[in-house]
Structure formats: structure tokens, C-alpha cells
């Protein structure tokens, strides 16, 4: 629902908020708050190099934050994508062979 509300109200946020010097995470937080979306803190959901360091291959993370340039971001994205694709493939193989899904794939 939060993303639906953001999609419907993003333009209003750009008109109402002084966002021009904000990083994207600040804009998103402030925009969602202005649209009435309540935040939920889950410190284990997002990885960042300062508070919650984790490799980009960690399938328990929903996002990886703190990549200040395109090359480091793309490197992380490629690592995460490779792991996600391998996990999905292995889950498919397990189902095809009549086995239960792998624990890593089931929790992703």
C-alpha cells in the first residue's frame, strides 16, 4: 500500500516538499510521511555499511543502502541478482524432483 500511495502522491511531494538537496532516501521518507504512511522499523531488512553490514549476496535483506557511485551499486546489484537467480533455480529443481524447497530459498 505504501508504494501505491507513493505512486499516487509522488508529484504532490515534489510540489510541497523542499526536496532539491535531499538524498533519495530522505525524499522517500519525508514524502511517505507527508502522505500519511506510517513507518515500521526493521533493522534487519536493509543492509548498509555502517549499521547493518552484510554482503550483497545475503538473501535475507530486502535492500542494500549506501552505494554512492554507479559502479559500486552495480557490483552489489549483480551479486544480489546472481544469488537470487541461483536460489530461485534451486528451489525450482527441488520442486521438480519432489523435494521440499531449500531452507535458504524458502526464506527469501
Share of residues in helices: 40-55%
Cα shape: globular
Ranges where pLDDT stays below 50 over 5 or more residues in a row are none
Number of strands: 2
Number of helices: 4
What is the CA–CA distance across the termini? 21 Å
Average of per-residue pLDDT values: 84
Rg over CA atoms, rounded to whole Å, is 18 Å
- Helix and strand sequence: HHEEHH
Report on this structure.
With 108 residues, this protein is mostly helical. The protein has two domains: 1-40, no CATH class; 42-108, no CATH class. Helix content is 54%, strand content 4%. α1 (2-16) packs across α2 (24-34). The two termini are 21 Å apart.
Summarize the structure in short.
The chain is mainly α. 54% of the residues lie in helices and 4% in strands.
Amino acid at each position: 500500500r505504501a508504494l501505491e500511495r507513493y505512486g499516487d502522491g509522488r508529484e504532490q511531494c515534489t510540489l510541497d516538499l523542499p526536496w532539491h538537496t535531499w538524498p533519495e532516501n530522505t525524499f522517500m521518507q519525508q514524502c511517505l510521511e507527508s502522505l500519511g504512511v506510517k513507518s515500521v522499523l526493521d533493522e534487519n531488512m536493509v543492509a548498509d555499511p555502517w549499521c547493518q553490514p552484510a554482503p550483497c549476496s545475503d538473501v535475507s535483506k530486502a535492500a542494500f543502502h549506501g552505494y554512492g557511485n554507479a559502479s559500486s551499486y552495480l557490483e552489489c546489484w549483480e551479486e544480489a541478482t546472481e544469488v537470487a537467480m541461483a536460489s530461485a533455480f534451486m528451489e525450482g529443481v527441488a520442486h521438480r524432483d519432489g523435494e521440499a524447497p531449500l531452507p535458504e530459498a524458502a526464506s527469501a
